[in-house]
Structure to design on (523 residues):
């Protein structure tokens, strides 16, 4: 591997890790507060990409505006999912799984019926050109994802550690019953967690729309990776999810470069399996007393 | 101030609390003692809204609170220190205290409450940036009590504050409870340590397999033959 390819691969790894991080943090957050997994999280990612497709490619809005639209729209989908699925099935993990897996199919069909199946929706690249770093060409469109991820994760961290509502969210994740005894309205907190969760998946999808095939089924590949990242990181740990996302970004990108994407997935899963043998609670997971 | 009126509480089909009535007057400590599994925690959980009674009524300041959510009950001025302390382990001492004051909006008053709590428990001030899960058992108990006090509750529910603590720490907690009483707080104290509980309280209730078998003035209960035999090891 020459130096240009190496730099290319490293930068692609960081981009992939950033995207995984944005997606997985949302999944981990929802799981932490509700103790239920959202199997439609990949479809939230897909929805974010379609928001950009509609507002940017069809309506001709500026790209940043279209990306920003994905945040409230998919965030609202997260809230609706919480009200209509997670609230009625709270505590029943199997029912939550069935219902969100069902929601995933419904969203795929709905999007397919509206904008077509099979045909890839084409989203023109808003930021052409590439940075030239030691002979490696890295597209601006991809590079843009890195500062966005930093900004998003920084904001989330600030919210969780310095804003009262964010701290209450952490309290709910650690001990929901005791949080309620402090007057923290748990039903508000689960809504908030799902709003953040949806918004983050939507943001990731929106950023990927110009550089990833936009189809109703684009959530499939994402959900698998997102779960691997969250399990690897330690289920409820936001920091763990970020760390695991970066690691997996590197593993996937490097293995894909020297081999192919299928092998990369396999290596990623094997890596997770090995980590779980050594640390069953995940990289930064907490051992429950 | 608080009355439990013939309440029944079930876990599935099994009644854990049967026809229990308890009265708590303003400013007093009422203790609920009994062996393991007697139903003490279940009773406290019903008062705080974590487990709704199946029958009977719970009245706080003239208002029925049975069926309300824990959030609503906390807002009315009842705070609970749950069994096993249940501090938020991955939050700092300070953050735990902040959560206790979650519903308060009066910043300067809250600040004053915090100072009072630090005065009661200087160790919490020293360790205010430490993660609560890394505190010792006794320190966690102090934090759990401090957190409950942060809401300036009219009624404080304490579930086995002495459990698992060294004798010196138990004396420390006992001192705090009597100080709180001296300051006019109303407290319901659940304890297995009957000796301690009956020393601190003005009234006591003895619970056995879900029922109140005896109640009265704490001082009299201490000299009751049955209580002495069963709970005081005399
Ligand atoms: N979540 C639950 N599900 C089923 N039964 C329960 C549950 N919690 C408590 N019980 C039962 O209810 C009864 C009363 O339990 P409770 O915890 O109120 O007792 P306690 O007096 O607080 O005991 P201890 O002193 O050991 O804390 C026990 O028989 C217990 O097994
Ligand atoms: Mg108990």
């Amino acid at each position: 591997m020459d130096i240009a390819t190496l730099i290319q691969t490293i930068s692609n790894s960081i981009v992939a890790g950033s995207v995984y991080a944005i997606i997985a943090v949302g999944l981990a957050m929802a799981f932490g507060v509700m103790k239920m997994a959202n199997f439609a999280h990949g479809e939230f990612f897909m929805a974010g990409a379609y928001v950009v497709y509609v507002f940017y490619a069809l309506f001709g809005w500026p790209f940043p505006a279209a990306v920003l639209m994905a945040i409230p729209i998919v965030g609202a989908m997260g809230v609706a999912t919480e009200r209509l699925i997670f609230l009625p099935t709270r505590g029943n993990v199997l029912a939550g799984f069935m219902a969100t897996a069902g929601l995933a199919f419904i969203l795929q069909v709905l999007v397919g019926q509206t904008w077509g199946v099979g045909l890839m929706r084409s989203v023109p690249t808003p930021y052409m050109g590439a940075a030239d770093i030691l002979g490696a060409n890295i597209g601006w469109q991809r590079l843009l994802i890195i500062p966005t991820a930093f900004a998003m994760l920084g904001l989330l961290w600030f919210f969780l550690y310095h804003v009262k509502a964010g701290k209450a969210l952490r309290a709910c994740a650690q001990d929901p019953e005791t949080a309620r005894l402090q007057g923290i309205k748990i039903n508000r907190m689960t809504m908030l967690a799902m709003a953040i969760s949806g918004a983050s998946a939507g943001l990731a999808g929106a950023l990927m729309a110009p550089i990833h095939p936009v189809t109703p089924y684009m959530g499939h590949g994402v959900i698998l990776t997102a779960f691997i990242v969250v399990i690897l990181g330690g289920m409820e740990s936001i920091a763990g999810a970020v760390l695991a996302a970066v690691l997996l970004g590197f593993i996937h990108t490097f293995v894909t470069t020297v081999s192919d994407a299928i092998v990369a997935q396999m290596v990623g899963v094997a890596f997770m399996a090995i980590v779980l043998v050594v640390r069953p609670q995940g990289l930064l997971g907490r051992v429950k007393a | 101030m608080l009355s439990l009126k013939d309440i029944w509480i079930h876990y599935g089909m099994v009644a854990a609390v049967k026809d229990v009535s308890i009265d708590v007057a303003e400013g007093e400590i009422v203790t609920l003692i009994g062996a393991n599994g007697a139903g003490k925690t279940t009773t406290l959980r019903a008062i705080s809204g974590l487990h709704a009674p199946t029958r009977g009524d719970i009245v706080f300041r003239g208002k029925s609170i049975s069926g309300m959510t824990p959030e609503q009950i906390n807002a009315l001025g009842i705070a609970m220190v749950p069994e096993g302390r249940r501090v938020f382990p991955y939050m700092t001492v300070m953050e735990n205290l902040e959560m206790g004051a979650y519903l308060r909006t009066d910043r300067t008053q809250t600040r004053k409450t915090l100072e009072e709590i630090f005065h009661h428990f200087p160790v919490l001030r020293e360790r205010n940036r430490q993660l609560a899960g890394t505190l010792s058992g006794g320190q966690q108990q102090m934090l759990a009590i401090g957190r409950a006090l942060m809401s300036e509750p009219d009624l404080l529910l304490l579930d086995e504050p002495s459990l698992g603590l060294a004798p010196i720490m138990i004396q420390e907690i006992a001192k705090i409870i009597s100080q709180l009483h001296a300051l006019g707080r109303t407290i319901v104290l659940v304890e297995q340590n009957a000796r301690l509980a009956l020393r601190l309280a003005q009234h006591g209730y003895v619970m056995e397999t879900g029922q109140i078998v005896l109640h009265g003035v704490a001082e009299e209960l201490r000299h009751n033959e049955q209580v002495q035999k069963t709970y005081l090891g005399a």
The pocket of magnesium ion (ligand 2) is lined by residues B 40-41, 83, 160 (CB under 6 Å). The radius of gyration of chain A is 19 Å. The first helix of chain A runs from residue 3 to 34. Chain A is about 75% helix and 5% strand.
